[in-house]
Amino acid sequence: MPKLRILDFDTECRPLNYLSQDFTNADVTAIAACFSDEPKSMRCWLLGRDTPRAMFAGFRKMYDAADIVTGHYVLMHDLGIINGAMIELGLPPLGEKLVSDTKVHLIKKGKTFSASQENLSEMFGIKVAKIHMNATRWREANRLSPRGLKLTEARCVGDVIQHMALRKVLVARDLLGPPTTWSP
Question: What's the pTM?
Answer without folding.
Answer: 0.94
